[in-house]
Amino acid sequence: MGRHYTAGFVQLLRKASGSRAELEPQLNLAGDLGCLPEAELREMPGASGRVGMMLLSLEGSLLRRSGSTEAPHGALETTAG
């Protein structure tokens, strides 16, 4: 039963990561339209990146604990050779 809940939570983390990625063009548009102060717009990419790294780290930790050999969604894959 624990694996079922872990898999479900990993799916939610992946959705959150996708939503975070969708936010970036919306922030660009808000900046172009002058809807947000420049100071706030400058802070957003860094904050968004930190949240993305936290989501990726949590997903990786859950996958490792569950014994999965799957790489975290969005992780850079390396190839040998």
Radius of gyration equals: 16 Å
- Number of helices, counting only DSSP H or I runs of 4 residues or more: 2
Unreliable residue runs: 76-81
| Elements, N to C (H/E) | HH
Terminal CA distance: 39 Å
| Helix/strand/pairing category | mainly alpha
* Helical content (DSSP H or I, runs of 4+): over 70%
Structural domain tally: 1
Estimate the global geometry from the Cα principal axes.
elongated
Strand content: under 5%
Largest sheet geometry: none
The counted number of beta strands is 0
Mean pLDDT: 84
Describe the protein in words.
This protein is mainly alpha-helical. The protein has one domain (2-62). It contains 2 helices and no strands. The chain is elongated, with a radius of gyration of 16 Å.
Primary descriptors:
disordered C terminus, mainly alpha, 81 residues, elongated
Characterize this entry briefly.
The chain contains 2 helices and no strands.
Give the helices and strands, then pairings.
Blueprint: H1 2-33, H2 38-66
Helix pairs in contact: 1-2
